[in-house]
Sequence to fold (181 residues):
Amino acid sequence: MERHPGAGPDDGPGQPGTDTGEGAGAGDGTGEVGAPEGGPETGGPSADGGRTGLAIAGALLLACGGLVGYGLLDTEERPKPRAVPTAEVTYEVTGEGPVEIAYLARSESGTATVVRDAELPWRTTVRVPLGQEPSVAITLGEKGGRAVCTLAVRGEHVQLATASGGYGRATCAGTLPPAAN
Fold:
C-alpha cells in the first residue's frame, strides 16, 4: 500500500489524501478538480438551449409572417352596399327678417339640417332618398317679418308657404315615390 505524505493509517473519508469520489473529476482518473459539468465543451444543456430558442423564435416569425401574408392576399370581393336612389330637391326661402331654416337632406340618421339666422334670399339643392318626404320649415325671430318657403322636386314646383309676424312659422313638404326594390 502506498502512503501519501501526511496521511496516517486511520485517515478516513473526507480526510486529506483520500479519494472520496465526490466533486468534479472524481473517479475519472484524470485528477482534475473544478471542471464544470455540462458546459459548452461537453455539449451540455447550454449549447442546446441557444439552438432551441432560435428554433422557437424562427417558428414564431414564420407564423406571424404567414398571418400577415394571408391578410394581404385575402382579396375576396365583398359586396358593396347598394346606392340608395335619390331625387333632386330644391329648397328656397325669400323675404325679410331673421330666419331659422330646417330641411331634410340625404343623411343616414334622418335628422334635419338646421341653418340659424340665415340671410335671405337662401337656396339649396340636395338629394333626398326616394321614399322620404322632403320638407323645409322656417321660423321667424322675435322681431317678426315675412318669409316664403318653396319646394321643388326634380325641378317641378311642389309647394309654397308663407310665415309672418313674431315667431311666425311655415312648412313646405312634398312626397317622393318609394324606392324600387
About this structure: The two ends are 113 Å apart (CA to CA). Confidence is low (pLDDT under 50) at residues 20-27.
